[in-house]
Amino acid sequence: MGQTNFSVLTLQGTALIRLLKYKHTNMLFGTILLITFLLNGCSTYTSVKKTSTKTESQKADKIAFGQIAEEKLTLAETLNNLAATPLLSVQINELLVEASELFLQQQNFSKALWLANKATALVKENHLYTYRLLLVKVKSLQALSHHQAAYKQLLLTRELVSYVNAESLTAPLTLSLEYYLALQAALAVKQQPVKALTAELMAFSLNDDSTAQDIFSLWHKLELLNQWQLAQLIKTDPPFIKGWQQLLSYSHRFGANSEQFSHYLRLWQQRFPTHPASLIVKQLQTTTLSINTIKNIAVLLPLSGTQQSAGLAAQQGILSAYKNDVSKKIHFIDTNNIDWTTLAAQFSESSIDHVIGPLLKSSVASYLTLSEQQITLQVPTLFLNLPSNKKLASYQTVLSMRPEDEAIQAAATLSQQNYHHPIILSYQDRVSKRLATAFSQQWQILTGNEVDIVYFNQGKQMQASLKEALDVNSSQTRIKQLQSRLKNNIKTESRSRRDIDMIYLIGSAAQTRLMKPYIDVNISPFATIVPVFASSRSHSNFDYYNNNSSTNDLQGLTFTQMPWLLASKQQNKNLAQLSHQLWPKRTDSLSRIFAMGYDSYNLLNKAALMQQAPYIRHFGQTGVLKLNEKNILTRSLIWGRYQNDKVMQIAME
After folding, report:
1. For the residues of 143-174, what is the DSSP string, one character each?
2. Which among 148, 129, 133 has a CA at the least distance from the CA of 91?
């Protein structure tokens, strides 16, 4: 309503109130008339056509919402001064709820929050009003950057809906579009992309006004998920997930092959003709990816010196993938016996159009510095180690084997398995500490709870650290105190802590073989068995094939591992068998480098395609590889378990 109408409405309202004071017998009728008149007057305002620009219109809306909110609040106060009746109380509560929502629309977040808090106590018997006020609080707190408080209100909102639906069949509550949008925003702030995406998919299903832009936004977030994140999302079973899942599966596996991909996209259309992702499929069918012809590949590895064994393992992996391809020529360059100043000339002479390596971090740094100065070196490059500080150029990617990715995956997966009180037992070396810190940080992000980290060293100190972590020492002290007070000896057993429901063990295979039995012995016989999970370092493929008794002490241990070192669906079994025959005594660390070399050759063209199409994956021997926004190829690992004197792949996600 305009300013004139607003003034008239105020005068008329005042006159009616005065009239009510003198006509007590007609109070109820007058109250209803006043409320109806004012509410109708306020509602007519919103139907006035706007002729101003968008910015001016938004400003006008904010002012109008504020005026209407103040009017409703004033009316509620006025009615509150009249003789109380049940009808009046209902109308007052409605006015307060509406006023708080209008203050929110006006972006007067502090006042909206204040009024919502005040009104909550008054409307507690009305679950729908309580729900609306909770959403006002959530949005106001989010706008004021009180994100943790907002998240708590979202939890209360869900609890309210669950309670009402459990108690009432006649007036159920449902979680609304507004709730899921707010939940998505809250989970994004909490760095929980999978849960945030679940909320966004729920919101999308409830939004009758969703646009093509909303669909493409969903697709962009879905195509960036790691394999283990996607598995977690599928478990939550959000709306439309089967169609999204199938499209992602086809995109991951066949996106790099246009002919195959077109075939599977047509299959998808036949199966999901009405799915929202049909828009995405139409775009994918018209997308053309460019591929560079590769003829001469420079491979930079340490083929002499102290790291020669690592360089040779990578070289053997590359040659296993190369298979004497006559269309390409490989030029191996020893980074431990190289004149870096002449490297550009070597590249020019050999017409190098692609690079694999270097492998060593120091050599990566040298190459990066040199490539900034020499145009000849600015060709597509796949590094086999992460650079320390320098930013990658657009034509440079890295095959990362960093341990933090493994720990993050493990923490994310295990936090979804109903474990609430984990403890980390970690060997006290540099790599183990990195794993422990990454696991702990990810667990806290996802659950809000801290995880105790207990570091141990070799020998007797390892057993002492474990006893302290499980609180066995305190139990033994209590036993000794009790025995000293009794004349006769009593049979006693030490009890471990009852608050630990999962152990994440970080150490070498040899250390794990010592620790695992000790954990089993020191877990109280009166307590539930505490499962032990471990990093890939705890599993030795070398020991498994060369030491028959190595599995005896590891029964029940569950761990992450790359497909190459675990008999699995993704493992290249023929190559694994041949490799074991050729190099039966190869260590686990060198086997990992062999697998990295093998994958690196198969990624020559694929890395460039991944930059153009983020949905493309490489199902390699080091894991399922995905290119992130920093041009780093990160891995999703598989899970294995020692069971019945064997090691087998299991499903965890």
Report:
1. HTT-HHHHHHHHHHHHHHHHHHHHH-SSS---
2. 129
Q: Note the helical H segments in 207-295.
A: 212-223, 227-236, 241-254, 258-271, 278-286
pLDDT of 405 > 90? The answer is yes
Whether omega before 358 lies within 30 degrees of 0, making that bond cis, reads yes
Task: Tell me if domain 3-47+54-175 and domain 404-484+491-562+637-650 are identical in fold.
Answer: no
Asked whether 275 and 332 are in contact (CB, 8 A), the reply is: no
pTM score of the predicted model: 0.83
What is the C-alpha separation between 160 and 150, in angstroms, rounded? 15
Q: What is the pLDDT of residue 586?
A: 93
- CATH of span 404-484+491-562+637-650: 3.40.50.2300
Please compute, for residue 560, the number of CA atoms within 13 A of its CA located in the half-sphere on the CB side: 27
Query: pLDDT tens for residues 581-627?
Result: 999 999 999 999 999 999 999 999 899 999 999 999 999 999 999 99
Q: In angstroms, rounded to a whole number, what is the distance separating the alpha carbons of residues 561 and 540?
A: 10
Could you tell me the two tokens for 160?
Answer: 């309210």
pLDDT score, position 458: 67
Q: Provide mean pLDDT across the span 309-317.
A: 98
List all residues 6 or more positions away from 158 whose beta carbon is below 8 Å from its beta carbon.
175
Q: What CA–CA distance (Å, rounded) separates 556 from 384?
A: 34
Classify domain 3-47+54-175 at the CATH class level.
mainly alpha
Residue 522 and residue 496 in contact, taking contact as beta carbons nearer than 8 Å: yes
> Strand, coil or helix: what is 422?
strand
Q: Coil, strand, or helix at residue 368?
A: helix
Residue 479 confidence (pLDDT) above 70 = no
- Tokens at 511, concatenated: 């250390």
Would you give the end-to-end CA distance of the chain in angstroms?
56
Banded model confidence at residue 58, pLDDT cuts 50, 70, 90: low
Nearest to 496 by CA among 470, 528, 515: 470
Closest CA to 186 of 143, 234, 235, 217: 143
The structure tokens listed for 332 are 């191996």
pLDDT of residue 287 exceeding 50, the answer is yes
Lowest mean pLDDT among 85-99, 108-122, 141-155, 459-473: 459-473
Domain ranges of the chain: 3-47+54-175, 203-286, 404-484+491-562+637-650
Helices (H) and strands (E) in the chain, counts: 26, 15
Alpha-carbon dihedral sign for residues 273, 276, 281, 287: positive
Q: Is the separation of the CB atoms in 602 and 578 below 8 Å?
A: no
As assigned by CATH, the class of the 203-286 domain is mainly alpha
Tell me how far apart the alpha carbons of residues 437 and 67 are, in angstroms, rounded to a whole number: 53
Write out 477-542 in H/E/C secondary structure.
Answer: HHHHHHHHHCCCCCCCCCCCCCCCCEEEEECCHHHHHHHHHHHHHHCCCCCCCCCEEECHHHCCHH
Which tokens belong to 235?
Answer: 């478990």
